[in-house]
Amino acid sequence: MAYNQNSKYERAAFLSRIITLIFILTIIQLSCTPVEPPLPPHPPPADSLLFHTPLIGDESDIRIPSPVPERFVADELSVDGWSCPPEKILRFPVDLRENPHLSFLFHCFTTIPIRIGDLIFKIDYIPSEYPPESGELPTEPIVLFDTTPIEFPTCFETWVHQDLDLSSHAPGRGELRFIIDGPLAGDPGLNFIWGEPVIYYPSEMKNKNVLIIGVDTLRRDALSVYGASPLITPNLETFVEKATTFNQARSQAPWTLPSFASMITGRLPSEINAMSYTGHLPGEADTIGEILLKNGFATSTICSNPWLGYPQSGFHQGMEELWYRYDATAGAEVDKALDFIDRTNGRDWFCFLHFMDPHTPYHPREQFRDLLFDPFLEGSYSTYFDDVEPWKSGEYIPTDSELQQVKNLYLGEVAYVDAMLAQLYKGLEDRGLLDNTLIIFAADHGEEFFDHGGFEHGHTQYDELVHMPLIIMGEGFPAGGVIDTSVGNTDIFPSILKYLDLDIPDNLHGLPLQNVINDNIDNSRPIFGEDNTRWSQRKFVVEWPYKCILDFVSFEAKLFNLADDPGELTDISADNTDITMHLEADIIANMHPSLSAFYIWVTRSLESDSKLYTGTITLPDGIDSVEALEFAEGDTWSLDGNVLTFSISSSQTFLGPVKHIVITPSEGSETLVASIQVQGGNISDLFFPYGDRTPAESGDVTVHLSDYPFGFNLPYSADQDFEGFYIWGTKQFDISGNGVELNEETRAQLRSLGYLD
User: Fold this and answer.
1) By three-state DSSP, how is residue 274 classified?
2) Using CA atoms, how far apart are residues 289 and 298, in angstroms rounded to an integer?
3) Tell me, what's the pLDDT at 694?
4) pLDDT at 309
5) Residue 315 in contact with residue 279, Cβ under 8 Å?
6) What does the buried/exposed string (b/e) look like for 491-500 if buried means 16 or more CB atoms within 10 Å of the residue's CB?
7) What architecture is domain 50-204?
8) Cβ 612 vs Cβ 648: under 8 Å
9) What is the DSSP string of 281-304?
């Protein structure tokens, strides 16, 4: 049959018309189909008004600048809030859903006598849209709260908590007004504070709570669950029956600040710059408190350690409340925790409860001291120990009998904490909270009793300081479970988020412990730790069964096989060079400076008088920011362009929160020029600008970030006075070294490990 060319084109045209028709019909169908708008994000079950900018005064008042929340302390409890402005009114637009409540605190600082009628505290609500079904919009503000100091006299001594049910005004949109009124409302001798106002919705709560019990200075082997005498922690034994015990948990530092910082951020200390030289937890990292507060949780820290509780510690981030008293006992702190829980009025809550009792000095109550008291031990420490510095420095070497006395006192303090834990558990049980609360029992670091020739903590990364107890009770953690896989305190943060079904950030160092339990995580997962408060800077990694400890100044490494040598008594690095080099590389790749900055510390020893340091710090190529911490009244600093001028009296002690300045240079800026005087004269042997104990020849020096060693030696030694003006520098760098001017020594070290060509 002959082929018809025309029929080919006719068929093609027909197919084209069919395809066009189908396309047109599809377009018509799509245009007729209603498009559902994307669902808005579900608002949190609580909304802190601290996240909102209030208007000031009535509509005729000037409302710029708006006030910024501040931190206020009363009766040892610090909260964020607003001081009543001169205009006497704070106004917040609100959009109320069903069943809203308003929770807030108030306190009055005053230096003047208050009489009846002098002051009135009020909260009004002015609806603007969607009025209740009961009628039209009211012409006058609805009074929600109206009282005087006569009705709440304790407001002059402590915070007064109030909880208002706003259900009769919801759903609705309008304005809340926080008002201070009366003849003395504007008196300069009066300061009225509205603290932590939050609108919350009980019916929308997750009904899940989180409690971290962080015990300071707690050795793992001080607990009976890990092998100690059953006399010491019988209540913890009961807790363990309902919880999961982790046998190979390690903290990320041998002292408080970096260790707890890692616990509540899920990141390594160097990643968030919570190190010995920074002296606080900076605000760049998200804490678990910040995340949970934004998700509607009531949040509280209750602590007795200055590294957590002092005003600039950084541990208040995300915490509606922070209660701090240096000499508080575990019993007092349990009472404060239960008080916080009672004041949440049904809100989901997160509490970070810190106990300091096992820290020196050791002075346990008689009933706990008698648990292990041995009358045959000779020495001066049968009831009390506080000779920390002579023991720590090596000035005094205790006898075996004295050492055992001190160990017994330490264990007596641990036994007291255990007894207070029983009261805490009973309090939770009486409130019906044990079944919906994730309880995490952990520690920041241990204590050395000359296990490796030293005493106390903060100076090494041996396991008596970093091998920690970790016990967790709650949904996802099997009762009586025992886990031998290596984990870290950085795993606590993501575990909380997983328990609460919240998104887990991608930048965390840790992973959820639920995954370790359920997914058979490889036991060779590296667990890292770092940072000393004294002696040379050291860092470690555990890749089971090996542990490598690397001195970041000398770059000397030690290697231990923990399965064969749990006491870390035999260094096997010389016979295992490949393993050692591999672990060294892991340490350097994961724990190097994450911020370019200069750190200036001004300190004095206990034996010397305070001195006045004055001068200038200049960064010729630019200063990005300056942060001054622990400054006292009379200390001053000012920034004019690239020149920082200061006048600072030296702090009393070196170890602990001391006066220091963090200077972040502008991009590309790495040179610092210092001109320093002490008491108006030559600084001579009190100026240490090189990251170690080397004094400057004069008060005028120039240093560069690249001049500083990869690690640094803290100026702490038995035969040295650590008084002076110190400068350290850390330089952020890409581990490849590209575009970074590392000093030749550091470059050679990285090259030897294969990170540089």
Assistant:
1) coil
2) 9
3) 86
4) 92
5) no
6) bbbbbbbbbb
7) Sandwich (2.60)
8) yes
9) --TTSPPHHHHHHHTT-EEEEEE-
Q: In the structure, what pLDDT confidence band is assigned to residue 15 with cuts at 50, 70 and 90? A: very low
Distance CA 107, CA 340 (A): 17
Q: Is the link from the previous residue into 69 a cis peptide, with omega within 30 of 0?
A: no
Give a three-class secondary structure readout of 524-568: CCCEEEECCCCCECEEEEEECCEEEEEECCCCCEEEEECCCCCCC
Q: Would you place residue 499 in the very low, low, confident or very high pLDDT band (cuts 50, 70, 90)?
A: very high
Q: What is the CA radius of gyration of the chain?
A: 31
d(Cα 426, Cα 335) in Å, to the nearest integer? Answer: 12
User: Cα(first)–Cα(last) distance of the chain, in Å?
Assistant: 76
**Domain-wise residue ranges, the chain:** 50-204, 209-522, 546-590, 597-730
In sequence order, the 6+-apart residues with CB closer than 8 A to the CB of 236 are 223, 224, 225, 418, 421, 441, 471
Amino acid at 370: D
Query: Phi and psi (nearest 5°) for 660?
Result: -155, 160
CA distance 489 to 145: 44
Helix 256-265 with 492-499: angle, nearest 10 deg: 30
**In the structure, what pLDDT confidence band is assigned to residue 332 with cuts at 50, 70 and 90?**
very high
Provide the token pair at 614: 């004055």
CA distance 81 to 65: 16
Lowest mean pLDDT, pick from 168-177, 221-230, 308-317, 652-661: 652-661
How large is the average pLDDT for residues 288-301?
95
Q: How far apart are alpha carbons 75 and 80 in whole angstroms?
A: 14
> Do the first three CATH levels of 50-204 and 597-730 match, i.e. the same topology?
no
Q: How much is the pLDDT for 360?
A: 94
Residue partners of 30: CB distance under 8 A and separation at least 6 = none
CA dihedral over 104, 110, 114, 120, signed as positive or negative: negative
692 — pLDDT class (breaks 50, 70, 90):
confident
The full 3-state SS of 372-417, as one line of letters, equals: CCCCCCCCCCCCCECCHHHHHHCCCCCCHHHHHHHHHHHHHHHHHH
79-97: per-residue pLDDT in tens? 999 988 777 889 999 999 9
Mean pLDDT, range 435-439, rounded to an integer? 96
CA–CA gap between residue 486 and residue 523 (Å, rounded): 6
Taking alpha carbons only, the member of 711, 715, 656, 705 closest to residue 537 is 711
More confident residue, 736 or 581: 581
CB 79 within 8 A of CB 298: no
* Distance from C-alpha of 415 to C-alpha of 223, rounded to nearest angstrom: 9
Report d(CA 314, CA 290) in Å as an integer.
12
Give the per-residue pLDDT at 86. 73
648 to each of 398, 614, 637, how far by Cα in Å? 39, 6, 8
Q: Is 386 left (phi over 0), alpha (psi -120 to 50) or beta?
A: alpha
Return the pLDDT at 447. 97
- Structure pTM? 0.89
Residues 390, 413: Cα–Cα separation, whole Å: 21
* 647 vs 88, higher pLDDT: 647
Helix (H, G, I), strand (E, B) or coil at 271: helix
> Topology of domain 597-730, per CATH?
Immunoglobulin-like (2.60.40)
* CATH of the structural domain 209-522, one choice from 3.40.720.10, 3.30.1360.40, 3.30.230.10, 3.40.390.10: 3.40.720.10
Distance CA 315, CA 78 (A): 12
Closest CA to 423 of 357, 343, 332, 341: 332
CA torsion angle 71 74 76 82 (round to 10): -20
Could you give the CA distance from residue 615 to residue 675 in angstroms, rounded to a whole number? 5
Q: Using alpha carbons only, give the angle 82, 83, 89 rounded to the nearest 5 degrees.
A: 85
